[in-house]
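Deliverable D4.2, example record:
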Amino acid sequence: MQTVPISVTAFNEDTLDALKVRDLQGLTYSAPNVSLDDIGTSRGSANFSIRGLGVNSSIPSIDPTVGVFVDGVYLGLNTGVVLDLFDLDSIELLRGPQGLLFGRNTTGGAVLVNTGNPTDEFSYKARVSTESPIESGRGGLNSTVQGTVSGPIIEGVLNGKIGAYYNFDDGYFKNLEDGENHGEAQTQIYRAGLEWFATDRLTLLAKGEYFTSRGDGPSGQNRGIYERDSFDFAIDQDGELDNETIFGTLRADLDVDFGDGTITNILGYRELDSTTIGDIDATNLFLFHSNTELTQEQISNELRYAGTFGKVGITTGLYYFNQDVAYTEVRDLPPLSPLTFYGGGGQDHTVYGVFAQMDYAFTENFTGIFGLRYSSEEKDASITYIRPRMPCSVVDGTCPTSGTNSFIPTENNGFTDSNDWSNVTPKIGFQYFPNENTNLYGNYTRGFRSGGYNFRITAPAAFEAIFPPGAERSFDEETVDSFEIGAKYDSPSGLRLNAAAFLTQISDMQRELNLSDPEAGVLQTIINTADADIMGIELEGSYAVSDTLLLTANIGAIDAEYTSVDFDISSDGLVDGADEALSLPRVPELTYGFGLIHDLDLGSSGVITSRLNFQHRDEFAYTDNNFGWIQEADMLDVNFAWQTPYDGLSVSLYGKNLLDEVQAGGDTQVPFGGPQAGLAPGGQNLANGVNTPFDVYPATGTFSPLKKGSLIGIEVTIQR
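Output generated by the structure prediction step:
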């Protein structure tokens, strides 16, 4: 981490164990300017944001700003990303655009998840844990059993590894409607790996995983009824999630004499099937319920070469990615419509990439970095407007995309369309080592998110006013230019200090405008809305006070503003200074934290390792019109781990979110939960008489899926 010229926070296996990381969301409060939130609409759907670049919707056709790579394979959908993890070797959080050498372009950053490899010596690890809400009257136990066995199958030729994970969550919350636990889930993961040393130069590593999770739907709080600082909610539909995923990778590494280099090929495959049921009105009445079905199949391949020729280091390669996605959404809104809404979308998405980076050592201590990538993306989409219609399924291919709606003859059923985008993205930078303890670096790089399509169109007339039939029906690509300078310092006295300053310039920002809608409950429009600048600083440090005490600290500050606005994001019917004055969504101005790790040697009784971590995150706007927002949070976690005198046996007692902070995955407005005021049906603003772009109501209530509060747990591990 200290020798690379990028801003990165890395966690090895021991640190992840100490932090009790169960999923990627567990690292949200571990690094400056990083939010790895689960949106909560459907369990496991990522809503990640790094340096103020993130999405605020569960629409599966949206390309993520933060790419998640598991064992080198990019995951094409946000769905199923935040589900349980185990047997991890490391996780790395890379801030800033990372499209050059990481397959798909990512404008915000990348999360690299590396699972454990088979070992050449026999080993095993088993772990049992259980945790419970601290506050009485909330939920039940959350228990996990997991284990791995690894070792040689044929000495020096073939190593193998198998693992299994079981989680039984009784539900953290209490549904005030019936007094029952809510948030129940059962998760199972089965994993296997083989590493074959085919020759002295060729190594093949294959990994496979089967994942299944079933449980309740979102624990949605309506903040037009309940206080934001409470865990109170009452819903009449417990909801449901059923998620099944098959994931596999095959990696080949071949050492070659050419440049004393390595040729690497990474083949990846993922198949996902997910269904959900959710109470979107977040009340104890049947006002807005929705269920979805989602399927995805992706395959990718990356072939690259890395070698050194004197002063020149070369990394170059080819990339291919393809995914087929189909999504059906069903809405029942009895107060707004006696008919059920059906619709969604399907998409075939193909990516080709060619990339190269040259590191040239001008001197022994100064290296120039020059990179270039060409990317081509194509999307073929079939969209059915989510409107009252005859029952149909996009997944099953029964939803119409042409003709007119038989229930509403003035409306089209949907459309088919295709578009492609190609880009050349450069990178130029430097790295300088003035002494053996200091690493100075700087770079400029460009990233982009390709344009695309909205699977969740609930206002056909408004959509077709912006994207008329016969014209392109896709929103355009988003471009990010990033400038960064940084320094990394390690002193012999035990001080480590990493600092970075950055400027991100965003053009044609893709946004998911979330508005309350009197016809469809919630309206979400994806459009290129604005240009913006985001600048900030990050500082991470640690100090070894002694051989047994380590102090850590970090701080991140961001200043973000619109430089121009092309669309009415304030929902007042005008494009003016009021739009530019709004806060950018998903941008907390300040994050900071500190922690300590202490080892207490008990002699013949073992060692107790104590870890404390505190992290603060400022409040931030969740929706573009700033009606929705997420309150600030102060997270305090502790862990006491006793390495017993019995070889390989350890016991941990830990607490999470000990300050019992209330957090939500989102804050989406719905026309239920409070007195309707401000905007009348038909979209006329009662205050100024200006027609809005869509027929909307203001924030009368919210759909805000809650996250868990304070927890205490115990864990027992035995390993060899």
